[in-house]
Amino acid sequence: MQRKALSAFILAAGLTGSGPALAVEGKLVLYTSQPNTDAQQTVDAFKAKYPKVDISFVRDGTPRVMAKIKAEFEAGAPQADILLIADSVTMEGLKKDDRLLAHDKADVSAYPAGVHDPRKMWFATKLITTGIVYNTKATMTPSSWTDLTKPEAKNQLAMPSPLNSGAALIHTITLTSNLKDGWGFYEKLKENGTLAAGANGDILRQVATGEKLYGMIVDFMPIREKAKGAPVAFVFPSEGVSAVSEPVAILKTTKNPEAAKAFIDFLLSKDGQELALKQGYVAAHPDVALPAGYPARSAIKLMAFDAAKALAEESAARKRFGAIFE
């Protein structure tokens, strides 16, 4: 009797090669802001483990994904089962509106507290930090956020604007909540001639070409380009960095909750997190190695961030930033 119970447990837990494939099937639709290549790799890896699930994806930037979902909600015809988007603040908004389905049995025991939503409504899959990129011909090598307010950086710093970037908004709220000067830091940046416009790719282009010597940018872009020979380097400032976690969640309106939960379980598993590493990202799982070009995980200090609090402050933060830079 005990042997039978153990076998049943193994099958249910997906500890055999055929268990998950037999237990999970049907259609599954993913809406994601991942780059197309990453999204396809993610879907293919999941499909390899769950061949009976007919999974497809729709890809766009997070604001457009959310606009599409909103329109579908209003029409009473939501199409997505799962979301894999840029930031936890957007997920908090969906949670507040009672749009998400909790995955109570998701195994997050390997992760430190605070990485995932405590109610298990959304789960972090990566840690994409924002730090400082500089052109290697620059005379100053920055090590602190405050270095960007120095004369050496006058009229030489570019950064994405939180008025049109969710990740930049999270970065701004994180810095103003953690740096001693708060919003005074951004006032000093403005006085120093900082340009607040463009996406991360444009910031990289400006710094790589020498149009600007410094930039605020997500980590993987300059680290990858440096490996290809671009004259750039990336710095994790001493005070710490902000991070977006590319969270995944299940919509409450899903037509296939079991397959959706299996997708969450896959992304949180060691295999799913190793996939993030292969794609060149810092996996959220603390035991997964970092990509080439990164320091040790212990050398990357994450600043404190409360997604629910950031959601409440979002409108005020945009207004305050606009008052400084526009």
UniProtKB/TrEMBL annotation:
GO terms for molecular function: thiamine binding; thiamine pyrophosphate binding. InterPro entries: Ferric-bd. Coiled coil: none annotated. GO terms for biological process: thiamine transport. Residues 1-23 form the signal peptide. SUPFAM superfamilies: Periplasmic binding protein-like II. Keywords: Signal. It comes from the Bacteria. One of its GO terms (cellular component) is outer membrane-bounded periplasmic space. PANTHER family: ABC TRANSPORTER SUBSTRATE-BINDING PROTEIN, THIAMINE-BINDING PERIPLASMIC PROTEIN-RELATED. This is ABC transporter substrate-binding protein. It comes from Bosea thiooxidans.
